[in-house]
Amino acid sequence: MTSAVGGGASIYASLNNNEILQEVVTKTISLKATFRQQILSKFLDIYVPASSVDRPQEPKEHNTWLSLLLRLPLLPCALETAIIAISATKLGRLHENHALVQEGWRIYGQGLWELQKALWDAELMYKDETLAACMALSMYEVIECPTKTRKAWLTHMNGCAKLVELRGVKSYTSGFGHQLFLTFRKNEIIHMLGQHRSTYLSNPEWMEIPWKYYSKSPLHQLLDLMAVFSNILAQAFQMDGLESTDLLDPILTAIDSGFKIDAKLQQWYKELQGRSLGMLYWPMLSVVENPTDDPELGKVFPVAFHFSNLVTAETCLLYWTTQIMLWSGLSFLYGLLATIEMEEDAFGHLVNSNKYTCLKHKTSSDNCGSKNETDTPRSIKFDMRHLPPLEHRLDLVSPARNICQSVEYCMQDKMREVGLAVTSFPLRTVTDVLKDYPDCHREVLWARAVLERANYKSFRLLKYYGTDA
């Protein structure tokens, strides 16, 4: 393995060729504080909104833990190499410097080795800086994705999740550890939702102890609900392969849990509105062009939503995204439930139990379902009148359009690449949902164009996100 010293010299030469850094340094550059802070500062200039870098002590959601590294004079080798790798690669892509990108790839390889050594060391394994190195290397995969598959990124995500859990929940109550946890938590919950998997982050201690000395922001209150919802999704997807006779109980359980989460989401949103000094968002004419705009049909979204800050925008985006996923899930379960046939006695036992609070009223077995005249007399279908109507929850298009109309605000130059990052998961959800709506063909093309022109360029993993793991 080539030494990090030579890597630092190569990177600095590439940076000077692009006139990024003009300072004169010694011929032998090591990956130490001065050089690392210079290249990290340049990276943050294009990645993090300016206020997060200028005032890193402020408790802002987008005060990324990377900004805090500017204040640390010394870092372990694993974290230092990881930081150099992501910074050099991003700057290389920005300035179309292939040599710098390749040098970042080489340093990334060294970072993997340094991380492995740290994980083998009993004293280093559970340090904040080792977790930070793991998160930084995962970030490299999001930015560069050199193998054109999500396998390495998934490995990093799974490794981070396991390391966070092994360190124990009390490791995240203050300082750098708390800031790392806030970033990891958001990324992990979004990842688990996308994978339809449950997460230990929904356990009460993981939703309470890290905030022992902090107040929980509305965004992280929403993430609490999203973590619980990820467990519901995981249970729902476990139904695949079950016989129809075994489906009624898990379907009703999932519907029951879904309505409870929906009620909590609505209450959370009312409280969010109550905290706001003014409107959460307001309409303004769109000024950004999109390839799907048409001279005759006009712009797909002539009106864009604006927010008081990027944190509020991201919070609303995740709220609407969760609505879409929850409501589409409930709609699917309703459709599945309407097709189930079972013996009348089995229906009566489940429907008349006190297990499902979503049922509008309890019934006798004589009217818990409708007789199927073509089958045996004891075969019935579930009477959907026992469940509350979905009503506005059938409208997935409205929250999807809200997401699209919020993208322009997030993609302003001053929001930098963090602004792009917060739109990725919501936009991918929009394209997945609206593709089944023929009347929303232009909206789907619009969202895909945004992902292609902005997100895919800055976060190359998104190109390959759907590939097999």
Task: Please outline what is shown here.
The chain has 469 residues and is mainly alpha-helical. The chain has helices spanning 4-17, 33-47, 50-54, 65-68, 77-94, 98-120, 128-143, 151-167, 175-195, 204-208, 218-237, 248-275, 310-337, 344-351, 397-410, 416-434, 441-458, and strands spanning 281-285, 303-307, 341-343, 369-371, 379-382.
Strand ordering within the main sheet? 3-5-4
Class by SSE composition: mainly alpha
Output the radius of gyration: 25 Å
Helix content: 55-70%
How does this structure look, described?
With 469 residues, the protein is mainly alpha-helical. The chain has helices at 4-17, 33-47, 50-54, 65-68, 77-94, 98-120, 128-143, 151-167, 175-195, 204-208, 218-237, 248-275, 310-337, 344-351, 397-410, 416-434, 441-458, and strands at 281-285, 303-307, 341-343, 369-371, 379-382. β4 and β5 form a beta hairpin. α13 runs antiparallel to α15 (397-410). The longest helix is centred in the middle third of the chain and has 28 residues, at 248-275. The chain starts with a helix and ends in an 11-residue tail after the last helix. Residues 1-31, 53-59 and 362-372 have low confidence and may be disordered.
What's the arrangement of secondary structure elements?
Blueprint (H helix, E strand, L loop, with lengths): L3 H14 L15 H15 L2 H5 L10 H4 L8 H18 L3 H23 L7 H16 L7 H17 L7 H21 L8 H5 L9 H20 L10 H28 L5 E5 L17 E5 L2 H28 L3 E3 H8 L17 E3 L7 E4 L14 H14 L5 H19 L6 H18 L11
Antiparallel strand pairs: 1-2, 3-5, 4-5
Helix pairs in contact: 1-5, 1-6, 2-5, 5-6, 5-7, 6-7, 7-8, 7-9, 9-11, 11-12, 11-13, 12-13, 13-15, 13-16, 15-16, 16-17
